[in-house]
Amino acid sequence: MEDKTPIGLREQRVRRKRVNKIRTSIVAGVFVWMLIITVLAVVLLVRLFQLEGRLKELEESVISVEQEVNHEDRKSGALSEENAESVADMNSVEHEIGEAIQPEAQDEDTPKAYLTFDDGPSENTARILDILKEKNVKATFFVIGQEGEEAEALYRRIVEEGHTLAMHSYSHKYNEIYASVEAFAEDMNHLQTYLAEVTGVTPTIMRFPGGSSNHVSSLPMSEFIRYANEKGLTYFDWNVMSGDATGQAYTPEQLIQNVMKDAVRYQNIVVLMHDAATKAPTAEALAPMIDQLRESGFTLLPIDEDTELVQHIAADSVSQ
Length: 320
Ligand SMILES: [Zn+2]
Prior knowledge:
Blueprint: H1 6-76, H2 81-90, E1 112-118, H3 125-134, E2 140-143, H4 149-160, E3 164-167, H5 174-177, H6 181-199, E4 205-206, H7 221-231, E5 234-235, E6 240-241, H8 252-263, E7 268-274, H9 280-295, E8 299-300
Parallel strand pairs: 1-2, 1-7, 1-8, 2-3, 4-5, 6-7
């Protein structure tokens, strides 16, 4: 029987209020928890991306340290047979800075500089292309797979403006591409087919993500080099780094200094730079870098099949 007396009604009202209050606080509690979890997830995701970027930077600085070690070995004449060939590729006659400006003729003795841009296309590609056009320089773009009209237009522009469209892998995910030769082959085929569809040009020049001497691959790099050799893909590493992918945030002036410091060591230089949204200083450094390289006697060229190889691990050191 329901209690209809005024006291009973009041009690009911009080009880209902209490129940409502509890319900409201439960809902609020759940909401706050969901909010905390969401914020935590976002923070962790951002941190993950930051760490991924940092990892990539560290890998590239490890490679640069190895190169330094190679230079030292070379100086002291303590060359192992293994890397003698690749070092010989990099170690032609060194030239002096401050030579007279030479016309961009292609004779054997002229030092040659190959500017290379990895990881594009990006927000900076158009700017880089504009500068190259203005300076009448042809370069090499080691691109990754990007979908969409904007990216497609940039791949086409690279080709139309006379640069070398070269491959760097579709996904650029080390753990995926270096998981197996099959995975690597699938990724590279994907990129090659895609670029051929978009531009009408089938690239045969490539750069391994992290370089041929990287230590991120779970399998020996010789497995992937063997595959590249079999497929008729020519890979290029680098012997001069701008440093734009190291942990340091170099200014455009410092990037140029880094390049010029190493440029004088070689007759032919392959300069590692990056075409990525975060690499605005690289684009900024480009015009004065081109001027300084020319002043030092370099002819600037795009990489092609006839370009003298610059490889950290020589392709012909891997048996078929
Ligand atoms: Zn890369």
